[in-house]
Amino acid sequence: STAQGDITTLQTSMTSAQTDITNMQTNLGTTQTNVGNLQTSMASVQGDVSTAQTDITNLQTNLGTTQTNVGNLQTSMTTAQGDISTAQTDITTLQTTAVLMDANGNLPIPLYHGNSIYKFWQSKL
Fold it and tell me: Model-level pTM?
C-alpha cells in the first residue's frame, strides 16, 4: 500500500516534471525567437549608425565648403568696398574737373599733375 502510494506520487512528480520540461522547451523557443529579433534589430541599428556617420561626414565637408565660400565672399566684399570708394573718389574728381573745363572740354592750366583723372583727361585731348 505504501509502495503503491510512492508509485502514484512518483508518477505525479514525473508528470509535473514532463510539464515543466514542455514549458521550458516552449520558453526556450520564445527566447530563441526573441534573440533572433534582437539580432535583426541590432543589425538595423548598425545600419542606421553607419548612415548617420556618413551623414555627419558629409555635413562636416559641407560646413568646410561653406566656411571657404564665406571667406571668399568676405574677401570679395572687401574688394568691392574698395572699388566703391575708388569710384566715389573718381566721381568727385570728375565733377570737380568738369567744372574747371572750358567750353571745348579742355582743362585749363594743369592743376592735378599727380592725379590719375588728370592723366585720363589729358589722354583724351
Answer: 0.53
